[in-house]
Backbone:
């Protein structure tokens, strides 16, 4: 498993510059353009805090989601269909779980890395109200894993990459827009509110927000963690099943 | 300007017809997964409208336009969503897809063994991208009317403006693609696109930016597009919008001129 | 009328010259070949003839027209089968032919009828509605050839038509191309297989390093540059070199390759007897007729396929 991870880390050393852009600069711009810009018009703040401070923890969680999904779509599909990397690994003395877990750990590390950078920026802007904010990192890793595992399963199933665009448009984008990152889900109509609760991202957003603002989350912490863990477990089993189907003939 | 440049680029009998064959080829590839992608392409700006326009709108409340009129936040954001989605649609078809077809699938090499010429391929691809984009724009405007964010008459005008925006970005996108070396370069395109999306007076009036940033923003194509469509849907269009139109036409002409020249160079070596 | 006429044709890329001043004339109805190893300049020549690559120098006229100014008009009358299949993977086998026909402005109805005819010709009727991806290499090649015929071209350009195919698939392609030739279609092909050139070409030029080194019919070239028969000897040793001197005086010429020695002779069996008379016992002996491979070896001192 660690050999697999090592491969991805070595590979990442070559391409990290490109990823700085998508996983760090873009969220930063979102924070400036949207958080600061719109924040100036949200005169009363949200739930008693300035809009920017309120939005930033959501953005940290949502960036974790973007990075994790990004690393679990094209790279995974490509490793099956294009450069056939997984097949090469399967020919080496590695188990299927090594191949899967090695890649997953890399995805989590990538997620952590960009979350940490973002957290530092957020601190520089003075949007963090509490030392509990450090907990946004494990939360980011958890939500990253919660979406990466089912995405691995999905990417391992499809063979045409237009299905990845479909995943983005029907899954990732709605989730990013309606999980309480930009506005409280409580203002959504009832049905949509429950859709938002079903998204793993909302749970991470609520936890992160509680952490950076130093307040209690809207739901019980244990409930949040359990729900995200459920996604991780179910996703991992699905991914393992699909990997086995593709790699063991 | 377009009428000046275009005839020179395509001065060969049957150019329009042959561009049409390129469109036909694309239409023949439509499959089930593609339809889903198409529907989802329409869904995206609508989701943004609901999330930002209504969700964040409920936090922002109403907005005062530079001319003093007060409109609800959704009516302010919606035309910007339309302009951005016209941009995104046109760019994704003319950069990502176009590049893949040209460099990796060698699709155009096969086409070039026929009487079809590079510029005709470019125009065909652009027309195809536009056909898609126009359907999205029309559907989005219908929703805007239904949500009472604009009137039907204004929506019709905005529809034509959205077509112009799509063409302008399509032309620019194609010109850019001919300079692309690898997929990594597209990260930059996507980033620039996203930056434009954030700062083109999309979510807040450009007047709220610091002066230097404001001048920079006002010179970008997306800002001009947003300005044009917003003026039309909110009914505040004036002489100033002629500048927007001229700007977008110039962008289109520039894009096509560069794309036509560079494609010839790249494909006919 | 000469279909293809080139004088002093040159193609230069940054830093190197791919085609270095060649003269070519192709007459209607003939099968004309460019034979040479990889990198000899065959494909560059083909691309210039296909009007997708402007010549750097010299004169080139195709169907009496200038390829730079009248590319579309010329291409309307050419069929091109490129070295690497560039079929449209998003379309089915039949759609590949019908959409391609549309690029030539062929009416839809005619295109459909012609696609069916051509699928029959290249024996792909059963796969008509399949996608391109799952087809075998030979099938893809045949489909590319069918696509090149969709506009009923006056000249068909085939760049390495059977490279990468297994022997069975090659023979099927050859057989189809032979049928085309019989129908009077002008074929221009490049190849680095001498058997392909011998099978298909009425006339050919041998190319090496961008230049034409010989020209004629396969028979005439062999008569002129080689002997009637060749004896191939393989000795079981690290190097074949030491044995060469012991073969002095047998046949007209001795050629030493890394893995064997070639003896150019008029009568193979007599030569073999003489070799055995000198108490040499090669591990392998093969007597064969001279081929274009030998012509190339004589002309350039190198083998075609390495």
Residues:
């Amino acid at each position: 498993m660690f050999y697999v991870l090592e491969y991805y880390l070595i590979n990442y050393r070559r391409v990290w510059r490109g990823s700085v852009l998508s996983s760090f600069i873009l969220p930063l711009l979102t924070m400036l353009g949207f958080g600061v810009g719109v924040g100036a018009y949200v005169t009363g703040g949200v739930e008693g805090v300035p809009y920017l401070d309120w939005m930033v923890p959501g953005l940290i969680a949502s960036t974790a989601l973007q990075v994790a999904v990004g690393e679990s779509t094209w790279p995974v599909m490509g490793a099956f269909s294009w450069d056939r990397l997984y097949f090469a690994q399967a020919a080496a003395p590695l188990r299927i779980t090594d191949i899967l877990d090695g890649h997953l750990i890399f995805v989590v590390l990538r997620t952590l890395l960009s979350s940490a950078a973002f957290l530092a920026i957020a601190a520089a802007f003075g949007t963090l109200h509490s030392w509990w904010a450090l907990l946004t990192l494990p939360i980011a890793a958890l939500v990253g894993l919660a979406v990466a595992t089912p995405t691995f399963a999905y990417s391992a199933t499809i063979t045409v990459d237009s299905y990845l665009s479909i995943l983005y448009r029907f899954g990732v984008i709605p989730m990013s827009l309606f999980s309480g990152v930009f506005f409280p889900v409580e203002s959504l109509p009832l049905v949509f509110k429950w859709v938002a609760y079903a998204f793993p991202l909302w749970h991470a957003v609520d936890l992160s927000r509680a952490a950076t603002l130093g307040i209690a989350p809207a739901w019980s912490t244990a409930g949040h963690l359990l729900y995200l863990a459920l996604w991780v477990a179910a996703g991992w089993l699905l991914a393992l099943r699909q990997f086995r189907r593709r790699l063991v003939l | 300007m377009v009428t000046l440049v275009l005839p020179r680029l395509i001065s060969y009998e049957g150019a329009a017809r042959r561009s049409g064959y390129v469109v036909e080829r694309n239409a023949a590839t439509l499959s089930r997964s593609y339809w889903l992608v198409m529907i989802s392409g329409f869904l995206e700006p609508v989701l943004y409208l609901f999330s930002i326009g209504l969700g964040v709108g409920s936090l922002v409340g109403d907005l005062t336009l530079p001319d003093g009129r007060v409109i609800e936040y959704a009516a302010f954001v919606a035309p910007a969503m339309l302009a951005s989605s016209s941009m995104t649609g046109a760019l994704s078809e003319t950069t990502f897809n176009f590049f893949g077809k040209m460099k990796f699938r060698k699709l155009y090499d096969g086409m070039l063994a026929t009487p079809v010429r590079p510029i005709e391929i470019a125009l065909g691809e652009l027309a195809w991208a536009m056909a898609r984009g126009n359907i999205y724009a029309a559907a989005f405007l219908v929703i805007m009317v239904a949500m009472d964010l604009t009137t039907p008459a204004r929506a019709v005008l905005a529809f034509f403006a959205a077509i112009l925006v799509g063409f302008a970005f399509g032309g620019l996108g194609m010109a850019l693609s001919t300079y692309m070396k690898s997929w990594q370069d597209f990260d930059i395109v996507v980033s620039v696109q996203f930056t434009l999306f954030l700062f083109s007076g999309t979510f807040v009036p450009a007047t709220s930016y610091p002066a230097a940033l404001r001048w920079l923003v006002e010179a970008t194509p997306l800002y001009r597009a947003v300005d044009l469509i917003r003026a039309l849907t909110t009914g505040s269009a004036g002489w100033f919008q002629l500048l927007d139109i001229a700007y977008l036409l110039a962008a289109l002409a520039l894009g096509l001129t560069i794309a036509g020249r560079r494609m010839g160079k790249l494909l006919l070596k | 009328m000469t279909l293809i006429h080139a004088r002093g044709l040159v193609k230069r890329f940054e830093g190197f010259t791919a085609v270095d001043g060649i003269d070519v004339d192709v007459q209607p109805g003939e099968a004309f070949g460019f034979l040479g190893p990889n990198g000899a300049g065959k494909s560059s020549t083909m691309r210039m003839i296909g009007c997708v690559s402007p010549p750097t120098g010299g004169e080139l006229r195709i169907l009496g027209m200038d390829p730079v100014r009248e590319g579309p008009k010329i291409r309307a009358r050419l069929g091109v089968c490129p070295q690497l299949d560039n079929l449209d993977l998003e379309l089915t086998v039949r759609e590949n032919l019908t959409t391609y026909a549309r690029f030539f402005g062929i009416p839809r109805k005619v295109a459909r009828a012609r696609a069916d005819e051509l699928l029959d010709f290249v024996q792909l009727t059963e796969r008509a509605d399949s996608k391109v991806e799952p087809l075998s290499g030979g099938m893809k090649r045949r489909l590319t050839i069918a696509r090149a015929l969709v506009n009923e071209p006056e000249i068909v350009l085939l760049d390495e038509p059977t490279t990468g195919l297994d022997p069975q698939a090659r023979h099927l392609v050859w057989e189809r191309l032979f049928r085309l030739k019989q129908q009077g279609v002008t074929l221009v092909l490049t190849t680095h297989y001498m058997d392909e050139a011998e099978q298909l070409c009425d006339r050919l030029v041998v190319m090496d390093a961008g230049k034409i080194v010989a020209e004629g019919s396969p028979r005439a070239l062999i008569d002129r540059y080689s002997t009637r028969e060749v004896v191939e000897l393989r000795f079981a040793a690290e190097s074949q070199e030491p044995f060469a001197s012991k073969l002095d005086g047998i046949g007209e010429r001795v050629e030493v390759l890394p893995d064997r020695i070639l003896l150019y002779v008029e009568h193979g069996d007599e030569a073999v007897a003489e070799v055995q008379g000198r108490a040499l016992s090669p591990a392998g002996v093969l007597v064969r007729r001279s081929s274009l491979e030998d012509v190339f070896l004589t002309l350039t001192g190198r083998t075609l396929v390495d």
